[in-house]
Design a protein that fits this description.
The protein has helices at about 25-35, 55-60, 75-90, 110-120, 185-190, 200-210, 240-255, 260-280, 285-295, and strands at about 15-20, 40-50, 65-70, 95-100, 105, 125-130, 140, 145, 155, 170, 180-185, 215-225. The chain is of the alpha/beta class. The strands form 2 sheets. Strands 1, 2, 3, 4, 5, 6, 7, 10, 11 and 12 form a 10-stranded mixed β-sheet that branches. A two-stranded antiparallel sheet has the order 8-9.
Length: about 300
């Protein structure tokens, strides 16, 4: 049951966007936790990304004050969330919070993030510390950095105690899409989340686009959420691995400069050769790279 609080006009308005695909159970748990947060001026927007089960009916049953939107076709993580972002822009919300449906938030997470962004107007996107669902004292990440020569992503402080980041505001390349808060005033100049990926690397590029507009990307480590893991993604075998490697190629081709690409492509070619010689079915990595170069999508049938 939602705790009723009188809206505080001094609190900026926030649209919290929760994307669902065939996983209404996690979505309900996520929304129920959101109903208890220590923030009054927010609206939860559930976007059903064209689920093929009975998710939409279940969501409508448990929704009370939440807004429910639907996608006519599943075009991936970015496109689904962009439906909610565009709604927030049209309704003139001041911030949007992108929240995975398998995330549980601490009651004060949003108040900490928004107040910190008010005090630091150059922050365009922020994320909280993300802790493991199985042990919420252990960090899954506190921001992340991308090596633009090798395409390697490093989750900062991964596996360490959450105590090591308390009190810190951590500058980084990007924050994970599990939970991110963005200014709508910045989104109007930067644009929506890039929809070229279907899954993975869209938040990397979105954050990079903010940096190009002279905004900072930070993890506000005093804010906390726990992240279960991609239950919706794991419903389809091979989906995660395929898009992780295929989209790395797309991301690098779209965002790396010429000298970085000169370093990256010999590296990825050597990786594919080694994988082909040492891993079972190792040639699959070459296929991922090929599809990335030519922007093919073997899971295109999911866009329905």
């Amino acid at each position: 049951m939602r705790i009723k609080r009188e809206k505080t006009l001094s609190e900026p308005s926030v649209a919290i966007i929760v994307l669902n695909y065939n996983n209404s159970q996690d979505t309900q748990l996520c929304v129920e936790r959101l109903r208890t947060i220590q923030y009054s001026n927010y609206q939860t927007i559930i976007v059903d990304n064209h689920s093929t089960d009975d998710s939409l009916e279940r969501i409508k049953q448990f929704s009370t004050d939440e807004t429910v939107l639907t996608a006519e076709v599943n075009r991936g993580y970015a496109a689904g969330n962009n439906i909610g972002i565009q709604y927030a822009l049209d309704k003139q919300f001041e911030y949007v919070c992108i929240l995975n449906n398998d995330v549980l938030v601490d009651p004060n997470y949003l108040q900490i993030m928004v107040s910190t962004m008010i005090e630091n107007p150059k922050i365009g996107i922020s994320g909280p510390r993300i802790c493991e669902f199985s042990d919420d004292t252990i960090l899954q990440s506190a921001g992340a950095n991308t090596d633009m020569r090798m395409g390697r992503v490093t989750q900062l402080y991964k596996g360490l105690s959450e105590k090591v980041v308390l009190g810190k505001i951590i500058n980084c390349s990007y924050v994970g899409g599990a939970c991110m808060v963005a200014r709508t005033s910045a989104i109007k100049s930067v644009g929506l989340i890039p929809e070229d990926y279907f899954l993975f690397y869209e938040e990397n590029e979105w954050c990079l686009n903010f940096v190009k507009q002279n905004y900072e990307i930070v993890c506000i480590a005093d804010a906390k959420v726990t992240h279960k893991g991609s239950a919706s993604i794991n419903q389809i075998g091979g989906l995660s691995e395929y898009f992780m490697y295929r989209n790395l190629i797309i991301f690098m081709n779209r965002n790396a400069n010429f000298s970085q690409l000169l370093y990256f492509y010999p590296y990825i070619i050597l990786f594919c050769i080694k994988a082909a010689l040492t891993k079972k079915d190792g040639l699959r990595y070459t296929k991922y790279v090929y599809d990335g170069i030519f922007k093919r999508n073997k899971f295109a049938n999911l866009e329905r």
